[in-house]
Amino acid sequence: MQITNGITLDEHDIEERFVRASGPGGQNVNKVATAVELRFDVEASSLPADVKSRLRVLAGSRLTTDGVLLIDSREYRTQGQNREAARARLAALIHQAAVRPRTRRPTKPGKAAKQRRLTEKKRRADVKGGRGKQRVTED
After folding, report:
1. How many CB atoms lie under 10 A from the CB of residue 21?
2. What residue segments make up the domains of the chain, in order of their start?
3. Are 86 and 73 in contact (CB under 8 A)?
4. 21/74 Cα distance (integer angstroms)
5. DSSP assignment, residue 65?
6. Which of 14, 97, 108, 136 can pair with 54 through a Cys bridge, CB separation 3.0 to 4.6 Å?
7. What is the pLDDT of residues 1-43, one digit of tens each?
8. Which string of DSSP letters, residue by residue, matches 6-36?
């Protein structure tokens, strides 16, 4: 299963279980197991270590304590559509984890920005200072 330009998943890494679903489908829901529970073992997969660590963070509560990612799909009435939807969600999650975040470069404000800040600060201080009681000076 091709995920991104450098990452492919082996079919043996993905385990699918079909269960009965609730929702639309009438009596068919009671007879046919159309919902898909997809299990993907993150630790045992062939993904690079950095992608695995980002995937663990992105998975959140969908990750079990054993390091298995659970994706449940029961939105369609057919098993095939639910299977494709679950695989698409797994692929999207791995694709998102494969993107390396940009490193933040700390910047400093320029001279003009500092000057604007100080000017505005002085103006606000003058406005607030004028709100108090005015002292009368006798000349």
Report:
1. 22
2. 11-98
3. yes
4. 6
5. T
6. 97
7. 556 556 666 666 777 777 766 666 666 666 667 777 888 877 7
8. S-B--GGGEEEEEE---SSSTTHHHH---EE
